[in-house]
What we know:
The structure holds 2 protein chains of 2 kinds. By secondary structure, chain A is an alpha/beta fold. Helix content of chain A is 31%, strand content 20%. Chain A has 6 helices and 9 strands. In chain A, the strands form 2 sheets. Chain A has a 5-stranded parallel sheet, sandwiched between helices. The longest helix of chain A is centred in the C-terminal third of the chain and has 18 residues, at 189-206. Helices cover 53% and strands 16% of the residues of chain B. Chain B has 2 domains: 3-46 and 290-422, no CATH class; 55-278, no CATH class. By secondary structure, chain B is of the alpha+beta class. Residues 212-241 of chain B have low confidence and may be disordered. Chains A and B meet through helix 1, helix 2 and helix 3 of A and helix 1, helix 12, helix 13 and helix 15 of B.
Amino acid sequence: MTDDSQAPRRAETAPLPGEVPAIELVATTVGYDGPPVLEALDWRVERGEHWLVIGPSGVGKSTLLHLLAGFLTPAKGTAKVLGTELATLPPPARDRFRGGNMAIVFQRQHLVQALNVTQNLGLARRLAGLDPGPEVIGATLRRLGVDAFARTRPAALSVGEAQRVALARALVVEPKILLADEPTASLDDRNADTVAELLTQEAERLGSTLVMTTHDARVRERFARRLVLGDRGRS
Amino acid sequence: MSIWSLAWAWIRFRPLGAALNVAMLALGTATIALLLMASQQFEQRLSADADAVDMVVGAKGSPMQLVLSTVFHVDAPVGNVPAEEARFLEQHAMVEEVIPMALGDGFRGYRIVGTDTSYLDLYGAEVAEGRLWDEPLEAVFGAVAATQTGLGLGDRFVGEHGLGGAGGPTHDDFPYDVVGLLAPTGSVVDRLVFTSVATVQLVHGMDPDHDHDDEDHADHADDEDHADDEDHADHADDEDHADLRPPEITAFLVDFSTPMAAVALPREINQSTVMQAARPAYEIRRLFRLVGYGADVVRAFAVILVIGAVLGLFTALFQALEERRADLAVMRVLGATQLRLFWQIVAESLILTVAGTVLGLALAHGVAWAAGLWLWEHNQILVSFAWADGEIVLVLAVLGLGILAALPSAVRAARIDIPRVLSGG
């Protein structure tokens, strides 16, 4: 299932002294219309760390990821990603920052239905400002065991296959930060285990910071660091 | 995966809908392009024929009928005027040249025109075979008239009342000899049969050599039916012209010697003679205005067709957007800016619009080409399928409408609520 020959690798994953953290929230309050979903949250994630964000439904796990991705801006406090306060960036720069540094895996795969698997990965690299990289795409598909579906449209994939392709799309841009929002929730045990294993393995290989939200007990043991969100996001 | 390749992938993902959008746009574009080509060629052809003649002078009546019958040969003559009226014109200081024209008969639908050979110079007509008419009852055929009637040098024929070809009375005692065939000119000359003025007068019971200034011709000037009830057999070999009427002329084609004549001469003729003057250029503009109302109605239908197609495109893009909200949200997640999504939708619309426009123009020119072949084969009418002046405006207008149709969807795509869409809201 793995093929190291084409895989980019970051040798050093441990945070360096003085290096800016991957994520730094200081007294961050955020929400949609109405009362805040996350309130006065402080959280620091060093580069290369793997974190699990857990908590019951509605406590703001997805909201936290939306904040980190720059879809939402804090009402109070600051939220920095790789030392950059996304709220201060104009929207196009925020989009480019996200594309160039982050990748997100969702519970639903959200693959572009009009494109085949290879094209979906190619689109991700293009939007991240990378070259088409057919070798990288091929190697990523091989490592995730979905290279047989390179020319298959998403509609012809099973849920488990589609989730591995979605994971491949996230990894093919070699993100510094990998966000995963309940990626195993809709999978059976075997696929959930496979996806969780691939997610942590590949994040480790790339030296990416991994933040995964879940209330799926099947994957909790893979993470040493956990952020437990309670009422209004307080940990 | 560029904007264009993704747009193309989305189009290929809904082939039937896209094909319908393109077909609708093509139909609208083709209809307008055909109208543009047809009206331009119609106007160019009529203008070319009209511009060859400065002024037509003939019997009083409808000036447009006078022009249509003597310049374009598509209407019945208004009537005749005494031939001696030519003197007034020939001696006028503002007149450079006067070409007489005697009409009344035809042959198998092609009008026989009694005139001077100088008439041919107006249209640059040249003899392809044989020679020009010289003696009475000699005839020269225009290119189309020759081809369609099948007559050649040395053949004989007899003229028929009116345009002929309808089984009406014929002038059996006055057979014409075909002495020449003209080369094609692309003008009205191609569809005429030429002979001398004296021949037409002779066939219709007039005395071409009549020179009785003191006769009262008033009775004849407005008599349009005299030719029908005359017995021409009596005149065939009649050396004594006592029974023959004074000669008449259907019209004079006048070439001005000065631009001032355009204003002064028609007024003078209309006020002080038994004749009327008509300016072909003016009458043809009037005709374009009249015909233009009909063309405007057809053009309006074509515009409605295009607008309908654009509305169809708008609807298709809007529906497709609803189906692709997740795709668009994911693109934003992957780093696409709002502007990129905006242009993504516009690009898809542009591809469909360009395809529809190109297909429409190809269809229009293809139809024009086929129609041209058919018209040339059956009527020897030369129809060009070259670009009409307005087609570039048409292309820009359709492309502009295509972009306009995409704008609501494009704006909506740019403003997509990423968290809500990705969380299934």
